[in-house]
Specification:
By secondary structure, this protein is α+β, with helices and mostly antiparallel strands. The protein contains 3 helices and 5 strands, in the order αββαβββα. A hairpin with a 7-residue loop joins β1 and β2.
Length: about 130
């Protein structure tokens, strides 16, 4: 996923991720130890870079398996920029399918997996 990885690294190298936190956690109701945690620039327009082309899992072959890092998007493919998530457990419904473009997976957590799992396990607030 060269375009997606290059985009992520632009944010890192430019310091646009400095001071960010994990701001969203979504656990599966049927398997609470699985889900995803999301981080990035949220809606901070001062940190935005251009949106990038969508590199689907069909194109890259990178599937949403446990600890896969993937780009979040605001809607249609091609709307990803500086928000991303980590899958905790396999999430095949986020992969490309003929009727669903899916999300652009581009990496994997190779160290600190226990930290990601602890973030997912934290209590979350209700939407109000």
């Amino acid at each position: 996923a060269p375009a997606t990885t290059a985009n992520f690294m632009k944010y890192v190298d430019d310091g646009r991720f400095d001071g960010i936190s994990f701001y969203r956690s979504a656990r599966q109701k049927t398997a609470p130890s699985r889900g995803f945690v999301q981080s990035g620039i949220r809606t901070d327009a001062r940190r935005f870079l251009d949106m990038i082309p969508h590199e689907s899992t069909k194109k890259t072959g990178i599937k949403h398996l446990d600890m896969t890092i993937s780009m979040a998007r605001r809607g249609e493919p091609g709307s990803a920029n500086g928000n991303w998530f980590i899958a905790v457990g396999p999430m095949p419904w986020m992969d490309w399918k003929p009727d669903n473009p899916g999300y652009a997976a581009f990496g994997r957590v190779v160290a600190g997996q226990n930290v990601v799992k602890r973030i997912l396990a934290q209590p979350t607030g209700e939407r109000g």
